[in-house]
Amino acid sequence: MAKRFDWIRKEIKELKSSGFYNKIRRLSSPQGAWLVVDSRKVLNFCSNNYLGLANHPRMIRAAKEAMDQYGVGPAAVRTIAGTMDIHLELEQRVAAFKNVQAAISFQSGFAANMGTIPALAGKEDAIFSDELNHASIIDGCRLSDARIVRYSHCNPTQLEQVIKENEGTYRRGLIVTDGVFSMDGDVAPLDKIYKIAEANDILLMVDDAHGEGVLGKGGRGIVDHFNLHGKVDIEVGTFSKAFGVVGGIVAGNANVVEWLSQRGRPFLFSSAVTPQDVAACIAAIDILEESTELVDRLWDNANYFKKEMSKLGFDTGKSQTPITPVMLGEAPLAQQFSRDLFEAGIFATSIGFPTVPKGKARIRVMISAAHNKEDLNKGLGAFMNVGKSLGVI
Ligand SMILES: *Cc1c(COP(=O)(O)O)cnc(C)c1O
Fold it and tell me: Is the distance from CB of 26 to CB of 339 less than 8 angstroms?
């Protein structure tokens, strides 16, 4: 065996022996409350399919029609020959849905962050970043070459302090925060952060990947939740979670959006998203604009599940959203818990380091509008049984 792979084999062996190796399961069904996973029918508690849209008949129909009209691929980047009518339509629809000046789409939320941050901050600039921001924000910040100044999690007072401390030492500033933090489900105090950005005339960017379709009126997101329309300069979103499709979006100030069409590198150097993805996203906006039914059901389900879990004695952290972390501590325990749940027909993956800090391993339950009461009760029963057998409750 070639020596040059030795280090990889050694690292993987270590991951396995320390319980940090991630065993990736295989799905053989569409997303929904129930899935076929590793050839077993199980109740699903770990997708980001908040509204159950990933397999929605109307969206499937829209995607098929788009393929008939536009084919399966754009065959170009947006800036050369890849901008189709429907890309522009989606961007206009998102801007209207969110009640902001403009929007521009990317291939994913990850690509949106990787494209946006380096376009807005460079070598002489400073980025003020929440210490628990998503990996794609961290990577975007690194790529920008700007000075990264981390502030403590969801702490506006400390943010203000680090901005003061760094005053006069940088050319331009950018504040960036997750809207909903994906591992804990807590919400950034965007109203307070906005005031600080405004007072210091610093650009403000929020990544609302887990707030899109969840927070705000009818799922219009965190900016709507805090009623900050026109005040948050950059709102990054994803179509890959509540919208049930795939793709990224940057909505907000028209100057920023126009600049990203010229300097957002994934927009310039990576092909546009497919017509069927775009059409499905537009259909999702139709569904959300017509009724708040799915968003309301999501919140009813989440509130019920969280209430019952704490009654059972589980620590579900400080979540303010349908993300329900079940805190377990060490990674091997979380993995055992997840395996036992799977044996009981419940699919809920464990999450450990490096996605969350060491010692903070958990099972992250994702509640969806696709669940009915019976599903939720079945899940609660399984959590109770496994929790008792492993001595967690
Ligand atoms: C999931 C997530 C992303 C990535 O979105 P994709 O569209 O899946 O690439 C970005 N930021 C945050 C906060 C996320 O939770």
Answer: no
Q: What is the pLDDT of residues 14-62, one digit of tens each?
A: 999 887 788 899 999 999 999 999 999 999 999 999 999 999 999 999 9
Q: Which ligand 1 atom lies nearest to the CA of residue 110?
A: 9
Q: Do residues 176 and 299 both lie within one domain?
A: no
Determine the pLDDT at residue 112: 98
Residue 305 inside a domain? The answer is: yes
User: Domain end: 240, 273, 290, which one?
Assistant: 290
226-246 residue pLDDT tens:
999 999 999 999 999 999 999
364 lines ligand 1 (CB under 6 A): no
Q: Of 235, 256, 290, which closes a domain?
A: 290
Q: Are residues 222 and 243 in the same domain?
A: yes
Number of domains in the chain: 2
| Amino acid 22: pLDDT | 82
Catalytic residues: 182, 210, 241
Query: What was the pLDDT predicted at 18?
Result: 81
**Positive or negative, the Cα torsion across 218, 219, 223, 229?**
negative
CA 53, CA 58: separation in Å to the nearest integer?
A: 9
Q: Which domain holds residue 341?
A: 19-50+292-389
Look at residue 3 and tell me if it is in a domain: no
Q: Do residue 43 and residue 184 come from a single domain?
A: no
Cα(333) to centroid(ligand 1), Å? 27
Instruction: For residue 255, count CB atoms less than 10 angstroms from its CB and return exposed for 0-12, middle for 13-18, buried for 19 or more.
Output: exposed
Q: Give residue 385's pLDDT.
A: 98
Count helices and strands in the chain by DSSP H and E runs:
14, 13
Give yes or no: residues 309 and 343 share one domain. yes
**181-191 pLDDT, tens digit each:** 999 999 999 99
Residues 46 and 131 in one domain: no
Compute, in angstroms, the gap from residue 336 CA to the centroid of ligand 1: 27
Atom of ligand 1 nearest to the CA of 137: 11
**Ligand 1 pocket member 133 (CB < 6 A):** no
The dihedrals phi and psi of 316, each to the nearest 5 degrees, come to -105, 25
**Ligand 1: centre distance to CA 72 (Å):** 24
Q: Which of 49, 116, 138, 238 to mutate to test the pocket of ligand 1 (most atoms within 8 A of CB)?
A: 238
Q: Give the list of residues 6+ apart from residue 199 with CB closer than 8 angstroms, or none.
A: none
In a domain, 4, yes or no: no
Residue 171 placed within a domain: yes
Q: For residue 307, give the CATH number of its domain.
A: 3.90.1150.10
